[in-house]
Amino acid sequence: MIELYKLHWSHYVEKVRWALDFKRLPWHGIDIVAFTKKEMQRFDCPQTVPLIHDTATGVAISDSSPIIRYLDETYPGQPLFPSDPAEREQVWQWMLRLDSTLGLYARRLGYTQVIMECPQTLAQLFMPHVCGGLFTRRGWRRLAAPVLGMMLTLRFHFHRNRQDGVYEALEALLLPIAKTLEQRPYLVGEQFTAADLTLASLLRPLRIVPHFSHHPALQSLFVWQEQLFREHGRDATFPYEDAIRAQRQRRGTMRGLVRWMKADRGVYEGQADDTLQAAKNDIHPVSSWTLVSGLPAYLKLRWFSGIAWTPYVPAAYSAA
Length: 320
Ligand SMILES: N[C@@H](CCC(=O)N[C@@H](CS)C(=O)NCC(=O)O)C(=O)O
Prior knowledge:
Elements: E1 2-6, H1 11-22, E2 27-31, E3 51-54, E4 60-62, H2 64-74, H3 85-100, H4 102-117, H5 121-126, H6 138-156, H7 166-183, H8 194-202, H9 210-213, H10 219-232, H11 239-251, E5 253-258, H12 288-291, H13 294-303, E6 307-311, H14 316-319
Parallel strand pairs: 1-2
Antiparallel strand pairs: 1-3, 3-4, 5-6
The structure holds glutathione.
Glutathione (GSH) binds next to α2.
């Protein structure tokens, strides 16, 4: 039995959940409390989710790509890596590269979108059981949202999205990938691998970020993702996607226009990365002392982010 320590909406967690289901391994999910993570403190590995504990071997390991590699090596049925060594290495490099770029950028921009449009959703994600679910109730949700928003803004630097060129870097990464997948069904070789699973999972938060979900040159990528979700029986949407869509339908608007990006910027060429040994992360420490400095950053993000309201229309890929 595999114990999976998780935050249920995390796209990195979804990678491992998908791998476990694909390999038909019995697993049991344990939801952690994000603020304390006390459920997994007994394990001597980096304290991020996903983290698995394999009760058959005693191994505890965090970081989604090493977890998937461990599962594939320990339980070779239904392989997620090709048998050819060169292709295996290609799959591994895709995973590390996507974890270190797409995964981090999509997390930043997904949370940014939630904060800009319906921050109360944060209380439902992070505090469903705190004080018997008090903070998921109407008025309390509104109180909890700015505090959670400030904390997350400092932890992941959402207020620096523009300075750090996150929209631009992500667009530059995804456009060539979309083009490649218009020509062939999989990233590596002739079969579904952990590289495809990684790409499809880590793209998830971008389904609520109109700059990407509505980008004409990326519709084929989301169609590819939807097809994989259907073939593999993955959830069609995550609850935060439903929450933001319901709100957009009610209001008839969405924060869709990234004002500082020029319409005629053309198509970027993807840059080849060096060979990676491990995935990078971008989590910054936040203490109750520094929390207060998050208020201006949060307010700026919420009201003066430079991302304008536009009329709500569903993305072409989802309306098709
Ligand atoms: N490279 C890691 C990233 C894992 C990660 O950053 N997980 C986040 C949730 S999406 C986390 O554990 N955050 C805990 C925290 O911020 O303290 C992986 O692929 O698993």
